[in-house]
Design brief:
- This protein has helices at residues 3-6, 29-40, 47-54, 59-73, 77-84, 87-96, 100-112, 119-126, 131-145, 149-156, 159-169, 181-194, 203-212, 215-229, 233-240, 243-271, 278-288, 293-304, 308-315, 318-327; strands at residues 8-10, 178-180.
- By secondary structure, it is an all-alpha fold.
- A two-stranded antiparallel ribbon has the order 1-2.
- α3 packs parallel to α20 (318-327), α10 packs antiparallel against α11 (159-169) and α12 (181-194) runs antiparallel to α13 (203-212).
- The longest helix is centred in the C-terminal third of the chain and has 29 residues, at 243-271.
Length: 333
Amino acid sequence: MAGATGAMQQMSLEPKGSGTLKDHTPFDAEDDSKKLRKAMKGLGTDERAIIDIIGHRSGRQRQELKLKFKTMFGRDLINDLKSELGGKFEDVILALMMSPPEYDAYELKRAMKGAGTDEDALIEIMCTRSNAEIQAINAAYKQKYRSLLEKDLISETSGHFKRLMVSMATGGRTETATVDANKARADAQALFQAGERRWGTDESQFNVILASQSYPQLRAVFDAYTAISKKTIEAAIKSEMSGDLEMGMLTIVKVVKNKHAYFAEKLYKSMKGLGTDDQTLIRVVVTRCEVDMVQIKQEFQRAYQKTLASFIQDDCSGYYKKILLALIGETYK
């Protein structure tokens, strides 16, 4: 076969991942509910018992627990947890009690609430989720906040960054595994002409390609770009863009090249140096622990020569540290 069809190859869409938190077997929602009620009843709270249950049940099982607890005791499990817990430990537990799209919607709303916008959180969520996940987030956001995610993104962002966020919110990226090498070369040339080859940058051309092509196709585009330009696509983006748009575009590139390494870097940056970016640390651990945390831990160790667990041990304390260690499949005392 010749021509464009001959240049097409089948490639895997994304490397599969495995979570550190899985379905707990055996699972007895009634017994777990009794233990949770006992842990919160009367004076004091048995935080250890809460970690032993909520930190070791899958999302599906946690949702079942919420229903069973209310059925058995006529009490809302979330309200009980809120009244008994505090601080960062409470933040993790409450995040775990939401479904994945509900938690992503909650984090997006938080990122856009009040003065200033947490663009870092917007980029992390909007630029790393699959089409199906974005559609579920849109539905959860509308149900929870009686507003459209796209509408809120438009009002909270501006310029080319706003266009990128709107593109991501459609959840319309091509998701086929077929790669067209001829198209990849043509797109790489278009990016070259839009950036390095002209005075000023045509950001919309970058948006067209980076927001719509499948991950395998983009890998081929990035390889073709380096062949044409002798520069990596990352170097081109860094020299042609700045601010939130640059960060958004670079995030797409990192996720396309190695999603697990991207999240490992997010975790590393949340804990390195003075202070901890707890919001990012919690969000990444909670959203990836059932998806690909096994691979993220491997990438973390490979890149930083230390385990993720050792970073959490050094940076966090108390029950907050224990729940994070439980979620990444590590033992805690």
